Amino acid sequence: MTAVSDPRSGATLAGAPVSRDPRGARWAYLAGATGAAANALLVTFFASIPAAGRENPFGPANDIVGSVATACMIPAAVAIGRHLPPRGRLRALHTATLGSLGVATAAGPLLVAGKLPFKVSSAASTGAFGVQLAWIGLGSGWLGRNAGLPRRTARLGQTCAWAALFGAGAAAGSLAAPAPLRTVLRAAGVTAGATAFLAVPAWWLLMGRWLDGHAAAGEVTHRPLGA
Question: What does the alpha-carbon distance between residue 24 and residue 118 come to, in Å, rounded to a whole number?
């Protein structure tokens, strides 16, 4: 089923993508599930620092499971990319995202094996996540307008991207802010960034539903604000 237009409002009604992709859907489901598991391990890692100290097993576990998640995201992103425009900036961003996911996949095991310094691994993973979020935000908007992606999925993808952008801006602004404002900006940046980080697995799960043809019939897809 393809997206169709509502004759009363002119809005695009949600449907499955042009062709169902069960294999791509399975990879998206796996990406979402393993991403959520990695996030749970990361939260557990920080929560258990006072008791576990430096010998905290949840850190390496998060690194490995996180790499499994990004490995699953690669074929899922390839499947999503089949519904994106074949040329232009969004296609270039899609290609960059696939490369960044490959970097993130390798960074975790190399860190656990002691072959990569923590600072280098963190920088690589953070950069890769930033590229991925830009692709998720822009890709969700385009798919919502042109390919029948349900509104809640498109909105979630864009919200993740905007939250991360706000978090990065707040963190950067805190570097030059006076002491009282610095604390507020840092807290806001951490909260926004963590929200985006924790919500991304849900986006992958919803993309799995879309690729598998389970978009809710009659749901209005995303339209830009003011459209």
Answer: 32
